[in-house]
Design goal:
By secondary structure, the chain is α+β, with helices and mostly antiparallel strands. Helices cover 34% and strands 14% of the residues. It has helices at residues 3-8, 48-81, 83-88, 90-97, 101-114, 124-142, 187-194, 206-209, 268-271, 287-294, 336-342, and strands at 37-42, 164-165, 183-184, 233-239, 245-249, 260-263, 274-277, 300-309, 317-325.
């Protein structure tokens, strides 16, 4: 076995490090009949500082994925070359080489810990889910599907093909826990901040705006949207001995203004949180779909940061947040009878 592979393989003695054990609480599971749908939310990255930080985040995550793919490729070659070990104990041979989900995660952690710059831009949660994504490709190569087919040998991708940073799902058992790319704000706050000047003043809720005609403009968002500010203090509902309302320090979870994607990891302690405003469609014809997906924040599940080539965007890339929602897909009232007829 080569020196590179020995260095990449997980250490056998882990007594010096402490890891979190198995979850002792009840594991959250998606209820039967609960749908899944994804909505694309364009992000505003016109500000130079925000765009520079997003580019640094992509460079850092691409470095992690490339290192993991190279490690996985070397480990897979060693696995297939060890005929005797594989015939005697294939599972033990894979564990020794680190060919498992946990093994790939440990590799990603070590790459992050040994690097001097990755810790400034990424978090362990991002590294873990990037390692899980690499392992999915490796597992399809190691284990055949029902038809007996295996996927090809894992290979290292290119920088231009790296367009998606996977995010971690929001916790549905612990309140206010979302470790990667949380989406904060409300649809009502977005309407209140960017309502169109010709919109009727009687329209104050998203549900009311969903009943407008398709030719009506609901939002008037500026060309360069400002970053929402983090709330500082919020009232707790209690009163002090002097009759004044009690307050506490606020977090992004208390933000009820316009929608924004917030990343609080990496170099946030020196440069502040990375806040990317969300740009929604302004026409009333798209508003019922937005209400279906965004009006209930408790159904928000996972956010992936995605980029695509766009020559008209600053920097040549357009960035989007792909939000997975725990609900069924949207069907307009005009298409529901037709879809029911096809069934």
């Amino acid at each position: 076995m080569s020196a590179e592979l020995l260095d990449a393989a997980p250490a056998c003695d882990v007594s010096a490090r402490r890891f979190r054990g198995k979850n002792k609480g009840k594991r959250w599971t998606r209820g039967e009949g609960t749908g899944l749908a994804v909505i694309r939310l364009p992000l505003e990255v016109s500000q130079l500082d925000s765009r520079h930080r997003v580019e640094q985040l992509y460079w850092a995550m691409w470095s992690v994925k490339r290192a993991l793919q190279r490690d996985a490729r070397a480990a897979v070659d060693a696995y297939w070359a060890g005929d005797v070990r594989r015939d005697v104990d294939a599972k033990g041979w894979r564990v020794e080489l680190g060919l498992s989900r946990e093994g790939m995660e440990r590799r990603g952690y070590r790459h992050m810990e040994r690097s001097r710059h990755l810790g400034r831009h990424v978090t362990k949660a991002l590294v873990m889910h990037q390692a899980d994504e690499v392992w999915e490709g490796v597992s399809r190569h190691l284990f055949p599907d029902e038809s007996g087919r295996r996927f090809g040998r894992p290979r290292t991708g290119t920088w231009w093909d790296y367009t998606r940073i996977p995010g971690r799902a929001r916790s549905h058992t612990t309140a206010r826990k979302w470790e990667t790319f949380p989406l904060h704000g409300t649809l009502a706050g977005h309407l209140d901040a960017y309502r169109h000047w010709d919109l009727d003043q009687a329209i104050i809720t998203p549900e009311q705006a969903a009943g407008l005609g398709p030719a009506t403009s609901v939002l008037a968002q500026p060309r360069r949207m400002p970053q929402p500010t983090r709330p500082r203090r919020v009232e707790t509902g209690e009163v002090t001995a002097k009759g004044k309302p009690k307050t506490r320090a606020a977090t992004w979870w208390d933000h009820t203004g316009p929608l924004a994607l917030v990343f609080t990891g990496g170099a946030h302690s020196q440069r502040g949180d990375l806040v990317l405003p969300v740009r929604l469609p302004s026409g009333a014809g798209r508003w019922p779909r937005l209400v279906h997906f965004l009006n209930n924040p408790t159904t928000w599940h996972t956010v992936d940061l995605v980029r695509r080539r766009d020559a008209s965007s600053p920097g040549g890339w357009a960035y989007e947040a792909h939000l997975m929602v725990l609900t069924s897909g949207y069907a307009s009232p005009a298409t529901k009878p037709r879809s029911t007829g096809r069934l």
